[in-house]
Amino acid sequence: LASRDFQPNDTIIDIKGVKIGGDNLVIMGGPCAVESAEQMDEIAAIVKAAGGQVLRGGAFKPRTGPYSFQGVGVEGLEMMAEAGRKHGLLTITEVMTPEYVDVIAEHADILQIGTRNMQNFDLLRKLGEIDTPVLLKRGFSATYDELLNAAEYILAGGNPNVMLCERGIRTFETYTRNTLDLTAIPVLQQLSHLPVISDPSHGTGRRELVETMSKASVAAGANGLIVEMHTDPDNSMTGDGVQSLFPDQFTSLLQDIEKLAPLL
Ligand code: PEP
Ligand code: MN
């Protein structure tokens, strides 16, 4: 079902009038983690003013170690939903377990499946039973075929609203957190009709590379970007402050992309 042979035309996911896929470029921005209602309100205002369409933020965080901040949980979903409503933005947040799919789907417009859960098949099957759009991140060691097979689980269950996300893979390089695989963008679009979103924040792990790799992703044909941005990245509650843009960087990035997109 994910294959271009099966469906030649691009899938376009329409969420409350925001179209994702085809010639549209969607911008998702916000902090790694939801921290407070004030933070989400402030960041949503910046995303909206800059021209973004979707507010990101994790209420449930898949942390590498068990003693790190795990997210604020269900309360965070409400904080994010409220900020999205107030500022006219869609919202995206991560879901890690099948049990939480329904409650998170009540609060968010898009469900994010993190890199560590790309092959959590019980979770994928559960996502197939609803129709809320899903952003499926590529596992950091997954091949294109494995990513497409993971998407297939959701599609086969009956949910056609799947976006693929390249968020960097593990390579021998240690300077960057991951290696953003730009080639994945055109390859996935050739193999599949599903929209492909690029995450240059996790893909590089370094703020100073996010702007360039965002532009490179758009040039490579990405259908959208998901970018971390924080008002005080050095004091963010996850380690991802180092890859989060400052608000003025986020705003100028979107201005540059607006100029770039029509040239492509
Ligand atoms: C995130 O988006 O903050 C995140 C945890 O992403 P990933 O699953 O790609 O590491
Ligand atoms: Mn993050």
TrEMBL record:
Gene Ontology MF, one: 3-deoxy-7-phosphoheptulonate synthase activity
Residue ranges of every copy of the DAHP synthetase I/KDSA domain listed in the record: 11-255
Tagged with keyword Transport: no
Gene Ontology biological process: aromatic amino acid family biosynthetic process
Keyword Transferase tagged: yes
EC identifiers of the protein: 2.5.1.54
Alphabetical keyword list: Transferase
Top-level taxon in the UniProt lineage: Bacteria
Record protein name field: 3-deoxy-7-phosphoheptulonate synthase
Species for this entry: Chengkuizengella marina
Name of the encoding gene: aroF
